[in-house]
Amino acid sequence: MSDGRFAGVDWASEEHAVCVVDEQGRIVEGRRYRHNEPGIRALCSRLVRLQVARVALERPDGLLIERLLDAGLTVIAVHPNQVKAMRPRLGVAGGKSDSFDSFVLAELARTDSHRFRVLVPDSDPTKALRAMTRARDGLVRTRIGLANQLRDQLACFWPGASKVFWSVDSQIALAFLKRYPTPLDAPAASASIAWRRFSSATATPAANPPASCSAGCEAGQRGAPASSRCKPAVRSSSRSSPRLSRSSPGSAS
């Protein structure tokens, strides 16, 4: 066990609890720092000023880890199960708190640092890859959440529209909803003709055949309020009558 001071940081999304102990295990300082740029800078500069030899945390990566390593501090990663097993040794009550966990981490850095992995700074390409991965994960979660909201909204007034395509947030599904945003706009009477027009305009194949479009639109109209149900014969005749008149046998004679 080398001389010096040792720190434990109980990481959190909004605030970090930090405990610093000396080589005898006596608490030198206990503080909390906000998880923002001024707070992280203050945390790193304070640990450097106290000449902390090792810092223990329960996670191996993240912005705080990168800043601690950039400050020249030695950081070790401790598994949460090891912190949990250490609590009864250092406390009688057996309770869990952020301040106590930071003290447990500081003690592990002081007495058992040889059992844990010392983290090394990532290269710039690795940091960029981590940042892009985190950004992509956030965008995927946002897209899933928005798709679920859209599906719930459609279930309230037009449930058939969400069953026309395989995925409600696909490109063709969004184009369909943009062109036909309500049951009033759905051409149920001439669904096959309107479907061919829409498919040729979008140049994207749908997951379901045209019959499913008609059934879905009609199901949505049956589930919609009476005031919002469309009158398909009136609205669709203006769109499809010119083409029907040219292709019908009666007009050719």
Q: What's the short version?
A:
With 253 residues, the protein is an alpha/beta fold.
Calculate the terminal CA-CA distance, rounded to whole Å: 103 Å
Query: How are the strands of the biggest sheet laid out side by side?
Result: 3-2-1-4-5-6
Shape: elongated
Taken in chain order, the helices and strands follow as EEEHEHEHHEHHHHHH
Task: State the helix count.
Answer: 10
Structural domain tally? 2
Q: Which consecutive residue ranges, at least 5 long each, have pLDDT under 50?
A: 206-216, 223-253
By secondary-structure content and strand pairing, the structural class works out as alpha/beta
Let me know the number of strands.
6
The rounded Rg comes to 31 Å
